[in-house]
Amino acid sequence: MNTLPEHSCDVLIIGSGAAGLSLALRLADQHQVIVLSKGPVTEGSTFYAQGGIAAVFDETDSIDSHVEDTLIAGAGICDRHAVEFVASNARSCVQWLIDQGVLFDTHVQPNGEESYHLTREGGHSHRRILHAADATGREVQSTLVSKAQNHPNIRVLERSNAVDLIVSDKIGLPGTRRVVGAWVWNRNKETVETCHAKAVVLATGGASKVYQYTTNPDISSGDGIAMAWRAGCMR
Length: 235
Fold this sequence. Notes:
The protein has 235 residues and is an alpha/beta fold. It folds into 2 domains: 6-46 and 143-231, FAD/NAD(P)-binding domain (3-Layer(bba) Sandwich); 51-134, no CATH class. It is built from 6 helices and 10 strands. The strands form 3 sheets. Strands 7-2-1-10-9-8 form a 6-stranded mixed beta sheet. A two-stranded antiparallel ribbon has the order 3-6. A two-stranded antiparallel sheet has the order 4-5. A hairpin with a 4-residue loop joins strand 9 (179-186) and strand 10. The mean pLDDT is 94. It is an enzyme of class 1 (oxidoreductase). GO terms for molecular function: L-aspartate oxidase activity. Its cofactor is FAD. One of its GO terms (biological process) is 'de novo' NAD+ biosynthetic process from L-aspartate.
């Protein structure tokens, strides 16, 4: 008999940075969502991002220019379709953050109109960096955390490590092979728990802690990549 503590939801999101919390907020009006945070919810890489977010807001700028700047800076490594998708959707995504309450810096133009204070960073041919002083990630993360923690359909489980994905055929469920949840290490209680979900989303970020030196926090250890590989999600 399985005596592990259990959670259940419509959508389990593993990862509590900008990606995971943004998705949770977009889904929560129609679905019950659980977000797993490996540590305190403010300790992901998003919180430490400083410079800003690139998007075309200046009328003298263009998406084509943003795309070309990115491809040049990428030195042939970038996937052009991915670059075009990101550049084309950047403004609407930034606007969504603004609608959630993220406060980007503004300034008053010579004509007296207030607009976003756009900076220009390496590789960019135009001013297209929106920022919140030099702590943009902190502003984004803090805003999204507050929204998520106050949404009735979102449960944020802090200090909860996803150990592995639960795959249907591994536990004897009939039908098409699929991911049905995750095993979770509750670091507060030092217990293993199960979380059952109709859909599971990996939003765990990168694996920069494989390097000896990195500006990312210790939790950036590639857990989601490893879980996806073990579950057969990556080919």
